[in-house]
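Recap from last week: sequence in, structure out.
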Amino acid sequence: MWLKRINLYILVIFSQIWTVELSSQGKILIFNEYTSSDTVDMGMCVVGDSLETYFNIINNSGKILKIGGNDYTYLIGRAVDDPDNLDFLEFFGPRDLPRLIDTNVNSLFTIKYIPFSPSPLFPEGKKIVKLWLGLFDPQTNDPPTSLKEIVKGREFTLIARKSAKELDVYENVLDFDSVWVPPTDTLYKFLVVQNNTKSKLVVDTILFYRSINAEIRLQKTSIPLTFDEYRSGDERHTFKISYYPTNLGRDTAVVRFVYSSPSNPDTVKSIQTVIRGVGVTQKIKIHTIENAEIVAGFIDFGNVPIDTSKVVKVLIQNSGNLPFAVLKQEVLNFYTNTPSTGFKLIDSLQGDKVLMPTELDSFKIVFTPTQRDTFLAKVKFTSDLSRRKIFGYPDSAREVVFYIRGVGLAPKLTSEVDSLDFGNIIVNDVQGCPTIRDTVIRITNAGNYVVQVQNAKIEPPYPQTPFRIFEENFEIPPYSNKSLRIVFDSIARNVGPYEATLIITSSFSKIRDTLLIKLKANGVLPDPMKIAFPSEINFKPNSSVSIPILVEKSKITRIKEYADTILFNPRTLVYTNATVASTASARAELLEIRQNPAGLLSINISTKWNEFFLPSDTLIVLNFNTFLGNEIESRIEFLSPRFGDGVCPRALTPVAQSSLVRIDSLCGLAYKLFDGKGGFFRLGNPNPNPAENVLNFDFVVPFETHTRITLYDTYGNYISSFVDDVIAPGEYSLHFPLDKLPLGTYFIKMNSGIFQEVKHFVKIR
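Predicted C-alpha cells:
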C-alpha cells in the first residue's frame, strides 16, 4: 500500500513543473554543491559502501520557511514509468525533516545512496531517480496542501551506480541518439571506467570495433593502463568518444577493456560499452504541383486579375529519414516576414499527423491579389525538431520554406495632362480663322492588363458645350498609349470661358479606373494690339544701335506667331542680328529674319504647338550698325504685322507705331572733321552680353571735359548714372553689379563734350 501511495505522489509532482519565487525581500536559492545542473551524477559504489551529495538552500526571503512534511515539499521518486522499479528506495534524505530554515540562513541538505544487496528487486547497474525539494511558508499551511503553496522549488535528477564487478563502466550503452548530418559541431561523450577492488588493476588491451562506415571515434590511450585501488581517488579513468556523422543511418561501436583479475592474475576478464548513434536529416521536397509551375525556385501562380482567386495544390514528400511533424504553418511576405496580403493557406498540412519517410502530404494556397503588383511570399512550416531528441542541427533546419510568386493584373488609366486649355479662341466665324479647333492627348495604360474603354464622354455633352470626341470605345494594351482627338467646334458664339469634363472609364470588372480631364477654352474677338518702336532714336555714326519692338505685355501671351516686314533706310542702317534673351520671344521655336537690299526686313517668329509668347513688353530687339552718309535719319516702320494663335493667323488686330532713327548732326560733323591726333572719345562694348551678375565696359576721354555716362531701360526711363563729372583724359574701366536690376534690355549712354554714343546689353538670369 505504501508503494502505491508513493507512486501516486510521484505522478502528481512530476506531471507538473512548479517553481515559485518570493518577490518580497530577496531570493531563495536551491542548488547542488558540485554542479549547477539539474542532473547530479553521484558516481559508482559497491555493496557495503555508499555515495552522497550535498544541496544548499539559501533563504533570503525575509521570513522563516520550512521543508518536509509531505510529498509536495520533499520527495525522492521514480524517474521511469515502470511500476516495478524500486531504485528510489536505495536513496535516503536527511533524518531531521521537516526542517525550519530561518531567513538569511544557509541550510545544507544531504542525499545518500546506500546500495542494497543485488537481487531481482534491486539489481546492479545504473540508478536514476527524481528529487523534489520545495520550501513553503508554515504560517499558511503546514504541511502544504498543494504545489501552489510552494514558494520555491526545484527538481533534480540523481544518478548512482551499483557494481559487483572488479572493473566496471559507468555506462553499458552510450547513446548519441539522433545527430544531424552533418552536425553543426562534433558531439562528445565521456566514458568512465572504475576499479572496484582493493588492489591496483591493469588494463592490458583496449579493443575498439565499429560497424561499416561508422563515424564514431575513441580517444587514443597508451596501454597498459593502471587503475589505483578503490576509493584511492585515482580508481577511475575517463575516455573521450566523438561522433560526427556525414552519412545517414545507424552507427555502432564497441569498446572493450581487457584485464587480469587482481584476485586471480591468471584469469583474463573484460568489460565493454556499446556506443550507438544515428545520422539523420529532414528533407521535405515538392513532389508535384497542380495549377502552377516552378520558375527560378518560386512556385509561380502566374498572372491573376485582382480580386479574383487562383488555387494551387502542392504535394510534398518526406525524402529524409526523420518523421516530419508541423508545429506552425504560415504564409509570410517575402521581404517583411509579416503575414502575406495576397496568399493564404486554405488546406494546410495535418498538424496532428506525422509525415513518415517516403510518405506524401499536400497543402493548398489561394492567391487573391488586392492590387496591381508582383506578390512575393514564402510558405513556412516550423517542424517539431526543437521538441525532439536530435542534436547538431542548424537553426535553419527547423523551418521548411517554399517560395511563391504571383502577379496581380489590373489596368491603370493615366494621362499626360489633367486639364487641357485651348486658350483664347476667336468666335463668331471671324474671317481667316477656322471653324474647328482640335488637339490630341495621349491616354496611357500604365497597368499590366488591357484597358477596355466604353462610352467615353464629355459632360456637358455636345452641343451644350462646343467640345467633342469622335471615338467613344477603344482598347489600350498594357504599358502602351492611345492618341485621342478632342475638338472645339466654333458653334460657340459667346465671348467668355467654356468648360467641360472629359470622362474616360475602364470597363475592367474588378476595378474601375476613371480619368477626369478638364477642358477649357476662352471665346474672344480679335483685340487691338499696340506694336511700336521707341518714339525717337538718336545714335552716333559708325556705332551700333539696338531697336526694340514694343508690344502689350497682357496680350502677347495669347499669341503663338508673329510675322511682319520692317522698312528702314539702308543708307543709314544695316541689320546685323536680333536679341531674344529676356524678351517675349525667348522660347521661340522658329526665329527667321531675312534682310533685303532695298531696306526690307522680313520677320517670322513662332513658338511650339503647346506654348505661347512670354509676358514681356519687348517682343524682340533688332540690332543695326550705323554710318554717316548723305542722310542723317531713317524711318523704321511696320508694313504688315500679323499676330496668330496657331490656328487663326489674325487673332489680334495690330495698331502699329513707327519711329524715326536720327543721327546727331553736330556729332556727325565733328566726327567727319576730327583728325584724331589728340585721341578719340570712345564707349566700349559692354561685356559679357548678355550679362547675369556683373557688367564691365570701358571708355576713353581724349581731353579734360565734363563726362556723363547714364543707364536707361527700353522705354528711355533713367535708372542711374555711372559718371557725372569733369574727368581727366585717359582710358577708364567700369564694373557694375546687376543683382538688383530686373531682367530685360538696357542702354548705356555716354555724353562727353560734343561726343555722344549709346550701347545696349541684356540682363538675364
